[in-house]
Amino acid sequence: MAMTLDGKLVVAISSRALFDFEEENEVFEQGDDRAYMALQLQRLDIPAKPGVAFSLVQKLLAFNQPSAGVVGSTSVDHGGLKSAPQGHAAAGGPIVQSPVEVVVLSRNDPVSGMRVFRSAQHYGLAIERGSFTRGQPPWRYLKPLHANLFLSTHLSDVRAALDAGVPAAQVYPRSVHASDAHPAEVRIAFDGDAVLFSDEAEQVYQSQGLHAFHQHEMEKAALPLPDGPFKPLLFALQRLQQAGTPAMRIRTALVTARSAPAHERAIRTLMNWNIEVDEAMFLGGLDKGEFLREFEPDFFFDDQTGHIESAARHVPSGHVASGVRNPLI
Question: pTM score, two decimals?
């Protein structure tokens, strides 16, 4: 019987989002991919440093350990956890299928891919699958993977993934890395409009101003907002939480520029979806960065580059290039 990823939370991630390859990337950007390949081969036995999305991946893979949580450091130079093999069994027991799958989807070449897998093994990340396209857009493999999330540093790949209906974000490689203060929680923060919800209300704000926006949202308070690109991910995270392990949990936050009275439609929309978030911050235009610093997420998603640039000074952040704020140039 063929292997399948159906029913799993599938995260596809580029090598630069998972590991810190910024120094190597400077060589690649000079236009000499063979020099880049040679450098990666030279460093094959040197584990790459964790990248911006490393903590998110590490903690999600912990859901593959039904009876184990974060129990301390598993490497000399990075505290964390070891992920279990993709399918495992207790002595004499049935095989337990892991609920999370992480796949590397990278513009790197196959030679550099060896270092990616060796680095993952060094940190105890049970990552078994990957596609390395040597400069070609890898997003086309998202559909056969049934990916729930795609994280990449390439904006064009993120846009293509979003157009294909896959939740995707451009990782800011210079983002501050996640805090290690919550080892047993995957903390994820989402913007509302154009991320969890459609940009319907944002379009009103952009074309008619704040007063018209509030009036529009009050009049439609009982009418759920249309789906945004990241609603499927929020659903998948809720399923993972419900079927997960007592040793790990997911904590979510809605962090939005909305304020009262426009808050009500957002809350009612989540209620209509039968989705609960743990925290909701209605900031009315206040800078999001400092609030996110206190929430300490493993990742934050927003459609506005200004909010991402602010957030990236405090937490791992990714740009969701969707909606009226992100027209094609």
Answer: 0.88
